[in-house]
Write a structure and sequence with these properties.
By secondary structure, this protein is an alpha/beta fold. It contains 11 helices and 9 strands. It has helices spanning 3-13, 20-32, 36-41, 49-63, 68-72, 96-105, 121-129, 142-154, 208-211, 213-225, 241-250, and strands at 75-77, 80-82, 111-115, 134-139, 160-164, 175-180, 226-235, 253-260, 266-273. The strands form 2 sheets. A 7-stranded mixed β-sheet has the order 5-4-3-6-7-9-8, with helices on both faces. A two-stranded antiparallel sheet has the order 1-2. Helix 6 packs parallel to helix 7. The chain is elongated, with a radius of gyration of 20 Å.
Length: 275
């Protein structure tokens, strides 16, 4: 079977999905170990039966709603390529806003803590840009820590360190900046979210108290682990800006402000420790 025929077949199968051709090309790229550009240039190339069978197996997984990133174990974030698996959330473009604003607040030799690091996307993106800083990523999932360490090695980033901690349970140091993309969906939202999200770790997505419980916990306890004038940056839901700002104020942060993501939704709030 030739490439163009298999791609056309997959596009018809995935007609209900937002990006059927992109999905098909990513899956085939993974199967034959060629770039999407190569696939489009040499679309008359004859595939082996083994390649076609493997492609169709992966296509079936995609048809069942499984995210492409989990099928090919890869996701781009901050122009870096990360290994991902079912043990970690899939890094999303809106979270790059968190990295961008963190970088704007950092100085040379600062210490950064990433709470709930997952595959290490936030930690490693910051470490990649700030080689003189030290970034510490924690997670309460041992598999996630292994994956983050794997990504650090793959990307040859040596100023990021990963270890187990249930939020601040194993933290003894203070930091210039704490950053987190915690669970912030409320349980009622599971009836409205994309089918793909059901493949991601439940505890990394959903939180109690209408999605605010983990954010509230982090903001309250961060004071103890920040240097004076240190910063806390939190990603949150599009409709949580006001409540998150109130929690920052309640916990004696100042210079509190929120920023929108690429789609214009309120996505992160940050604040500075007074004293």
């Amino acid at each position: 079977m030739k490439i163009y025929s298999l791609i056309d077949y997959a596009v018809k199968i995935l007609y209900n999905y937002d990006t059927p051709r992109l999905d098909a090309e990513l899956l085939l790229s993974y199967v034959i170990k060629k770039t999407r550009t190569w696939i489009n240039i040499f679309n008359n190339f004859e595939l082996t039966n083994k390649q076609v069978v493997l492609f169709k197996k992966l296509l079936f997984r995609r048809l069942n709603g499984e995210p492409i990133a989990y099928i090919i174990n890869k996701k781009e974030f901050w122009s870096l390529s990360f290994f991902v698996s079912k043990y970690t959330l899939i890094p999303r473009p809106e979270t790059e806003i968190l990295v961008y604003h963190a970088l704007n607040l950092l100085n040379k030799k600062d210490f950064i803590l990433d709470l709930g690091t997952g595959c290490g996307a936030i930690s490693l993106s910051i470490a990649f840009e700030m080689l003189t800083c030290k970034v510490f990523g924690i997670d309460n999932n041992h598999q996630a820590i292994k994956i983050a360490k794997k990504n650090a090695k793959k990307l040859n980033i040596k100023n990021a360190y990963f270890f187990y901690s249930n939020w601040f349970s194993c933290i003894k140091e203070k930091f210039n900046l704490i950053v987190s993309n915690p669970p912030y969906l409320c349980k009622n939202e599971k009836f409205y979210i994309s089918q793909e999200l059901f493949f991601e770790p439940y505890n990394s997505l959903f939180a109690k108290k209408n999605g605010i419980s983990e954010i509230e916990y982090i903001i309250h306890h961060s004071q103890k682990y920040l240097f004076v004038y240190g910063w806390l940056l939190i990603e949150h839901g599009w409709n949580q800006k006001n409540i998150v700002q109130k929690i920052f104020k309640k916990n004696n942060f100042y210079n509190i402000r929120s920023y929108k993501d690429y789609l214009g939704y309120n996505r992160i709030t940050l604040g500075q420790k007074k004293y």
